[in-house]
UniProtKB/TrEMBL annotation:
One of its GO terms (molecular function) is glycerol-3-phosphate O-acyltransferase activity. GO terms for cellular component: mitochondrial membrane; peroxisomal membrane. SUPFAM superfamilies: Glycerol-3-phosphate (1)-acyltransferase. Pfam families: Acyltransferase, GPAT_C. InterPro entries: GPAT/DHAPAT (IPR022284), GPAT/DHAPAT_C (IPR045520), GPAT/DHAPAT_LPLAT (IPR041728), Plipid/glycerol_acylTrfase (IPR002123). GO terms for biological process: ether lipid biosynthetic process; fatty acid metabolic process; phospholipid biosynthetic process; triglyceride biosynthetic process. Residues 144-273 form the Phospholipid/glycerol acyltransferase domain. This is Glyceronephosphate O-acyltransferase. Belongs to the GPAT/DAPAT family. The gene is gnpat. PANTHER family: DIHYDROXYACETONE PHOSPHATE ACYLTRANSFERASE, GLYCEROL-3-PHOSPHATE ACYLTRANSFERASE. Pathway: Phospholipid metabolism.
Length: 652
């Protein structure tokens, strides 16, 4: 393993040294003044280097006349035998289908309507004003890319609403083609800055060229910040998803080719106290198809307006300079060897740089996610639910005991650097009661006891909806605990209180590698993550670490038990996928057939009492487990079918 230097300088690991901005509730003023006056107010945002907004027709013309698109059109014409004019017409049609048509009148309409909706749904929308000021400054200096986290359909509407409120330039937003199918609403979104892209391009050179040139033209000329979701889609589990690199490659390209001096990338963290799609996500994870986006579906969803969804916190992070990210990592001279307009696949060096940057940016999003007290309560109630079921005990726990444990977990979370929004001038019992009240669909409080709203006589999938919904809130704090939890699980694998440090590191390394599709774990940072986990557990009195050994202190057992319990559902999920592949005939199974087949296998085991965690029914966990087994060489895909490597699976 080599020597692990444990005590890296304090400032690298101590999360309590991180300073974060204060928040302001932007709905406070909306509740006391006219929404119409707000929507019609003077809106004069400052743009990059003072450029004037560009008409959509001019923007399209610039794209269609670009050297890169001309080159690709001629290439496609030669390869397909079609006339260049026909290919050019196809490119124009693609652009017409894709392009935004941002209009201030539509933005004003949305500003008015969203004010009404947000005041009904949410108690507050809290924004860090210092982050907005940094963003305004960044927009004037360099082209800007906004990267919000993605947990709800509400995200992109919320972003534009906030920027309009603060008189910041409105972004152009990458949206999935499925939104375009919504009559009226699709066009309204287009006129508020959305541009529509296919979920996948396959090998369509022309589509990729039109798309990339369109995004780069908007970015290079600084007409508007470009906004997209680095995770590619909404997270149904509230965990950050593995970043998708396509759009990030595109927005970094103008800097790498020397077409702009720099690009500022701004990670934005959006934290919901209660997610609108809560039960919808849980059902999707259990195999219920996602409802198709439609205008009628939007109107049917009006019943959510009668619900209370608590508060939202939106944190605009520090602008990240692509120039500073690339310094010492990328030799840009390679781009001088080929004319800029000729498309080329990114080199391994560029791919590695973009991938590492993507992980760093998602980590930046995670670090500024605001955790509400309910996140702690959901975690404690889930662990209690599983423990009671395994021991055959009465469900639930005393309200006083839950409050005591929540205070303990609050203090531990803060020591580990959680951005926790816990009202300090309110008694813990009131904080707990408020959290339970907001999420009363998921918990029951009766005769001084609290339990998940799961009835034993209910069918398994109905119980699983509640468990997976609670797990999605627990998952919001995983980024705080995942490294210490991996270390706790590695220590648990060893039997005695005194563990050889090399053995613990090797177990940590294996677990980290296995879970690298499950959590955001930066490539090549295994030793750094191990050191960080050791530092946190030593600092909080859980471990003592010498050059050779890792020792658990007397007071450390409680924290280690909590941390291992946090990771246990994921471990059992991966184990049951291995068992399924070992025991079942999977040689004729395609990847598409895998999820329904493994779900049926898991349901049978849960009903027979052989599995402890209903969370293993999550299709997200099953897909990640399969991806891990493919990466570890235990499963291969040959001609579309999954082929297991038996001796690997048996070892796992």
């Amino acid at each position: 393993m080599g020597t692990i230097v444990l005590f890296t300088p304090l400032k690298l690991f101590d999360p309590m040294l991180k300073k974060r901005d204060d928040f302001e509730d932007i709905l406070e003023e909306r509740r006391t003044s006219s929404d119409l006056r707000y929507a019609l107010r003077c809106y004069t945002p400052v743009l990059y280097k003072g450029v004037t907004p560009c008409k959509t027709s001019v923007l399209k013309s610039m794209v269609l006349q670009s050297d890169q698109l001309h080159y690709v059109i001629n290439q496609v014409s030669k390869e397909s035998g079609r006339a260049a004019d026909d290919v050019r017409e196809e490119a124009s049609a693609i652009l017409e289908e894709m392009a935004h048509s941002l209009q201030l009148s539509t933005v004003r309409f949305f500003a008015f309507m969203l004010s009404k909706v947000f005041k009904t749904l949410f108690r507050s929308i809290c924004v860090n004003e210092e982050g907005i000021q940094r963003l305004q400054q960044a927009i004037q200096e360099h082209p800007v890319v906004l990267l919000p986290s993605h947990r709800s359909y509400m995200d992109f509407l919320l972003m534009s609403y906030i920027l309009y409120t603060y008189d910041v330039a409105l972004p152009v937003i990458a949206a999935g083609m499925d939104f375009m199918g919504m009559k009226f609403v699709g066009e309204m979104l287009r006129m508020s800055g959305a541009f529509f892209i296919r979920r996948s391009f396959g090998g369509d050179k022309l589509y990729w060229s039109v798309f990339s040139e369109y995004v780069k033209t908007m970015l290079k000329n600084g007409y508007a910040p470009v906004e997209f979701f680095l995770e590619g889609t909404r997270s149904r589990t509230s965990k950050s998803l593995t970043p998708k690199l396509g759009l990030l490659n595109i927005v970094m390209d103008p800097f790498l080719k020397g077409e702009v001096f720099d690009v500022n990338v701004v990670p934005v963290s959006i934290s919901y106290e209660r997610i609108l799609e809560e039960s919808l996500y849980a059902r999707e994870l259990l195999g219920v198809p996602k409802p198709k986006e439609s205008t009628s579906g939007l109107f049917k969803a009006r019943k959510v307006l009668s619900e209370d969804y608590g508060s939202i916190h939106v944190y605009f992070g520090q602008p990240v300079s692509v120039r500073s990210l690339a310094e010492g990592r990328v030799n840009r001279c390679q781009f001088n060897l080929v004319p800029r307009h000729i498309p080329r696949r990114p080199s391994e060096e560029i791919q590695s740089f973009v991938n590492d940057s993507a992980y760093r940016l998602v980590r930046a999003q995670e670090e500024n996610m605001v955790l509400k007290p309910w996140v702690l309560l959901a975690s404690l109630l889930l662990q209690n639910h599983h423990q009671n079921r395994a021991a055959g005990q009465k469900p639930g726990m005393a309200l006083d005991e839950l409050t005591t444990q929540a205070v303990w977990l609050r203090d531990v979370s803060r020591q580990y650097g959680a951005f926790l929004h816990w009202p300090d001038h309110t008694s813990p019992s009131e904080v707990v009661s408020s959290g339970l009240s907001l999420h009363r669909a998921l918990v029951r409080v009766c005769e001084g006891r609290v339990q998940l709203a799961v009835e034993q006589e209910e069918e398994l999938l109905s119980q699983a909806v509640v468990v997976l919904s609670c797990a999605s809130y627990r998952n919001q704090m995983l980024h705080v605990f995942v490294r210490p939890a991996l270390l706790a699980s590695a220590i648990h694998i060893a039997s005695s209180n005194q563990k050889r440090k090399t053995d613990v590191f090797n177990s940590f390394s294996f677990l980290r590698n296995m879970f690298s599709s499950e959590f955001i774990l930066c490539p090549g940072a295994t030793v750094q993550d191990f050191e960080e986990a050791c530092y946190l557990l030593v600092k909080t009195g859980v471990l003592q670490v010498t050059q050779q050994e890792v020792l658990v202190t007397e007071r450390g057992h409680r924290t280690l038990a909590f941390l291992t319990s946090m990771l246990d559902p994921f471990l059992q999920g991966y184990q049951v996928v291995c068992r399924f592949l070992c025991e079942e005939d999977t040689e004729t199974l395609t990847e598409k057939q895998f999820i329904p087949a493994v779900r049926k296998f898991i349901v049978n085991h849960l009903l027979a009492g052989r599995l402890r965690y209903a969370e293993v029914l999550s299709s997200d966990l099953q897909k990640n487990a399969l991806a891990a087994l493919q990466r570890l060489g235990a499963v291969r895909k040959i001609k579309g079918y999954l082929v297991k490597i038996q001796h690997f699976l048996t070892q796992l």
